[in-house]
Amino acid sequence: MRLQLLLLALGVCAFAQRPNSQIRIYESAFKFLTKATCHIADTEVSKLGANFITFNTTIGSGEVILKTSLSVDKFVCPILDSYISDKDGIHFSSSQGVWRMKGLWSAVYHNPFGLPIDSSANGDAVLSATDLDVDLAAKIVVGADKHPQLQMGECKAKLGVFDYKFNGKFADLPNMFNDFLGTIVKNIVKDLACQITQNTILTKYNEVIAKIPLHYELPYNFSLDWALYEPRYTNNLVEMKGAAKVAYGKKPCESHVTYDEVFQGFKNEESAKDVVIWLGQSLSACALKSVHESQLIKLPINIDSLPDYKDRLSTRCGGWLIFKGGCIGAALKGLSKVGDYAELLLFTAEAPQINLKQGYVEIYGKFGAEVYEYPMEKHPKVLGKILITATAKVKPKIVNKHLIGECDTDDIDPKLDIVKGYKITGFTFGYEKITKGIFKKVSKVLFFAILQAGLPLPSFDGAAISDKTQIDVFDKVIRINMGLELNGK
Questions:
Q1: Which CATH fold topology does 26-210 show?
Q2: Which residues form a coiled coil (predicted)?
């Protein structure tokens, strides 16, 4: 049931005074979702019981009273399809469905002369309809509680082959009104088909949609608040504007970039999959600002976290270590022979800046590195503080249902500055290059830690975002071109 909800959850990344995102849901997505709709109809239709063929009619002064009690005996899910109309919204259609009901009937005939010779009869009945075709229009609307809801429009139903038969004592009594009953029952069945679609299936969809929270708790103590703007329908897609408010812990961050400033140049997509989401860079900038203000990144660098870098973290450089490229003890004035190894604690000194450029994401970061004698827990005194300024080029991608970033760390060229007032007072003459090499490795570790954790992508009852989803970066805008897949496929 929740396959349609996957689209809504992806589309409603919104909540702010100004839109800063856009989603386009294509017909292919709705066609994909219809593959899993039959089980809803199977479940709901099988529960159906109906006392719906009940009528009184007169013949002269006589009267016939007919009552039935039927339940579904057989239901074959029809062929399902969907399309989008700019006038009516989303259309769900079905064809070649089969519906058969069995049950009991009873009839009483009061003779027209008031004589005590009334006739009564009862038995079993079979009603069948094939080629039961339904066309239903629906639109996504925003309710008073800010939740999206599916609102049904016009419903049309057609019956191809329709038949029914009454068996039992005096079965000819109801059968004698075959043509008259046929018209009544056909209309009842068509109304019932729309009623099931509108009131039963729709109600269950909206019950689940109503449970989707307006506030999402994300991994790593992030959260997202959203709301949805009214969608626009064209001949092959549903387009919605959205905005988002991201927070880390209790520190929120809102975007202040208008929708038109970001998206006005992007009207059409080529090679669109099922769902296309456009995000402005302000949303990512907000997230990074929250990361910094909440001091989320505190990364220890020591001989335990980087065992292969043990020699470089040594404070006692012999001739062999100098020959291999030196160590941090020889590179920093005031650190030589302080213990055996140094430990660094990395953190963000300023909020990282993000720029979306054609083909990649550029992240500019200013980080701090506090220098301790290893292990820091036993030697909590800060020996020195170094400011590291570095820029990384990142390409976002989806791996194992996680959104991650890859960067070419070989291009990272950190700039280093010593903060005054500590035991470490500067760089040893001739060791600037060695020191930069050490902190180039540190910068690689830092960017890798930020980018590789990734955010898990949502999955709902049976559907998930495909790993074939493409992420493209343009100036100030990022596009997520999503494909959907059934879980386990």
A1: Bactericidal permeability-increasing protein; domain 1 (3.15.10)
A2: none
